[in-house]
Write a structure and sequence with these properties.
alpha/beta, 16 helices, 5-stranded parallel beta sheet, 2 domains, TIM Barrel
Length: about 450
C-alpha cells in the first residue's frame, strides 16, 4: 500500500445512495464515498468494517449522489431573455425586439454570466460549455463560483446587428476578430488551469459563418487541437440559407469544409434528412440534444435515428434555464414519443449517461469526470431524497429522472471541494449576484426597447 493510500481521507461521505454512472451498474445503498487530493479514493457499499479515517466526515442518509452533471451547450448570458424568448418561436439571436448579444457591454456580461453559471451550479452541473459574448470577461467570472467552465466567444463573420431584421452581411474583419479572440482565450487558459477552465472553438452556425471562414475555423482546430462546438440544422432559415448559398445541407457543408468529425459537438440537429442523419452518424459527432428548449419551440431532434446511425448523444440546456435534471426528463419523454413506445434501450439510465459520461466524452474528459469511479476527479452532485415528490425512492434513478428537479440538489463538489452546501453557493453571495444581474438585464431591456 502506498503512502498516499494510508493517508486519511480529506472527506468521507456516508449513509447515502450512489448512482455511479458506470454503464450497467446498480445503485449502491448505504454507501460511502472517500475523497483524497481532489479525486475519488473509494466508492463502495459501507460493509461491516469501520469507516476509514478522514479529516472530515458527513453522514448523509436520505441523499442521492450522482456524477456531476455536464451541460455541453449553454449560453449563461441569455438568462436576460428568460420567460420571454421561449414564446417567440425562434432563437434569440434571430429575433427582433429583444436584447441581442451585440448590445451587451462587458460589465453586463460579467453580471449576467455569473447568474447563469450560478443557476447551473446550484442545479448540479459541475461543468458548463458556454458560448456567447465577452468570453474574456465572463470565463474567469463564472469559474470563480467553483464549477468547471469551458467557454468561448461566438465565432462568426456575419454582422449580428442585422440578422434579427433579415440583413445578412458577412465581414472578414468580424471573422478575424472573433477567431483571434477565441484563440487568445485558449492560449491563456487551455491546459493551464488543472481542468477548471477550457475552450472549445465556438463556430456559431453554418449560416452565420461564410464558407471560407468555416474552412479557416477547421484549419485552426486542426492546428491547435481544439475541439469545435456549433449549432447545426437548428432552423429552417439555416437550411434555406445554406441551400441557396452553397447548394447543400448544413451537415454536407460541414463535411465539405472539414468540420464534421468525431471531435465536433453540434447542438440541435433538428432539421436533418435521412442522408444528413447517415452523414452525421458516419462522422461520429456528438449531438448536444436540447430536449426541453427544442420542444418548447415545437421541434424535436430525431435522436433515435441519429443514435442508430452512429452519432453520440449528450445533453445541454441552451437558453434561459439550466436545470439538467429537468432536461433528462424531457429527453426521456420526447425520445419515447418518437418511438411511440417505452423500450428497453431508452430508459432513465440512457438519459443519465447523456448528462454525465456522454457529456464528459464530448468534452474529451471521459477519463477524468462523468462517473463516480476511484481515480476520477471528485465531481459530485448530492440530492435530497427526503422530500414528498421523491418519496418513496425504491428505484433511485427512475425517481430522479421522472420526478426530480435541479432544486433538489443539496450539495455540489468539484475536485472534492464543496462549492454548494445546503443548496447555497459557498464561494459567492447569491443575493448579490442576483441584484447585479437584475440591474444589468433591466438596462439591456431598456436599450433594446428604445
Amino acid at each position: 500500500m502506498s503512502a498516499v493510500e494510508t493517508e486519511p481521507l480529506d472527506l468521507l461521505l456516508t449513509g447515502l445512495t450512489v448512482l455511479t454512472g458506470v454503464p450497467g451498474s446498480a445503485p449502491l445503498h448505504e454507501a460511502r464515498i472517500g475523497i483524497r487530493g481532489g479525486r475519488l479514493a473509494m466508492v463502495e457499499p459501507a460493509g461491516d468494517g469501520p469507516p476509514p479515517p478522514a479529516r472530515r466526515s458527513l453522514h448523509l442518509p436520505g441523499r442521492l449522489a450522482i456524477p456531476g452533471l455536464v451541460n455541453v451547450h449553454t449560453h449563461a448570458i441569455l438568462t436576460m431573455v428568460r420567460g420571454v424568448a421561449e414564446d417567440l418561436g425562434f432563437a434569440p439571436a434571430y429575433t427582433p425586439g429583444i436584447p441581442q448579444g451585440h448590445m451587451v457591454r462587458p460589465d453586463e456580461a460579467y453580471a449576467i454570466g455569473r447568474l447563469g453559471a450560478l443557476e447551473a451550479m446550484l442545479f448540479g452541473s459541475t461543468l458548463i460549455n458556454d458560448t456567447f459574448v465577452h468570453a474574456d470577461v465572463i470565463t474567469p467570472a463564472m469559474a470563480e463560483l467553483g464549477l468547471r467552465v469551458w467557454s468561448c466567444g461566438r465565432i462568426h463573420d456575419v454582422d449580428f446587428s442585422g440578422v434579427s431584421t433579415g440583413r445578412w452581411e458577412h465581414d472578414a474583419a468580424i471573422g478575424e476578430r472573433t477567431l483571434d479572440e477565441a484563440l487568445a482565450l485558449a492560449e491563456h487558459y487551455e491546459g493551464r488551469s488543472d481542468l477548471r477552465i477550457g475552450v472549445q472553438l465556438a463556430a456559431h452556425a453554418p449560416d452565420t459563418c461564410s464558407t471560407p471562414f468555416l474552412r479557416r475555423i477547421a484549419e485552426a482546430s486542426a492546428r491547435t487541437g481544439l475541439r469545435v462546438t456549433t449549432h447545426l440544422s437548428q432552423s429552417k432559415v439555416e437550411l434555406a440559407r445554406i441551400r441557396d448559398r452553397d447548394g447543400m445541407s448544413p451537415p454536407e457543408l460541414l463535411e465539405e469544409v472539414g468540420l464534421l468529425d468525431d471531435r465536433l459537438l453540434a447542438a440541435h440537429c433538428i432539421h436533418v434528412s435521412e442522408c444528413d442523419i447517415a452523414r452525421i452518424g458516419r462522422a461520429g459527432i456528438t449531438v448536444a440534444h436540447i430536449a426541453k428548449g427544442n420542444a418548447t419551440g415545437a421541434t424535436i431532434a430525431p435522436t433515435q435515428k441519429l443514435r442508430a446511425a452512429g452519432a453520440r448523444l449528450a445533453l445541454g440546456t441552451d437558453n434561459m434555464h439550466a436545470d439538467m435534471v429537468e432536461v433528462m426528463r424531457w429527453a426521456l419523454a420526447v425520445g419515447r414519443i418518437q418511438q411511440g413506445a417505452v423500450t428497453a434501450d431508452w430508459q432513465p439510465e440512457t438519459v443519465l449517461a447523456m448528462a454525465t459520461l456522454g457529456g464528459a466524452r464530448a468534452m474529451g474528459l471521459e477519463a477524468e469526470i462523468g462517473s463516480l469511479e476511484p481515480g476520477k476527479r471528485a465531481d459530485i452532485a448530492v440530492l435530497d431524497l427526503r422530500r414528498a415528490h421523491l418519496t418513496p425512492a425504491r428505484n433511485p434513478l427512475g425517481t430522479l429522472v421522472h420526478t426530480g428537479q435541479g432544486r433538489d440538489v443539496e450539495m455540489v463538489l468539484v475536485d472534492g471541494d464543496v462549492v454548494v452546501a445546503d443548496g447555497r453557493p459557498t464561494r459567492v453571495d447569491e443575493a448579490e449576484i442576483r441584484r447585479e444581474a437584475e440591474r444589468a438585464i433591466a438596462a439591456l431591456w431598456a436599450r433594446a426597447s428604445g
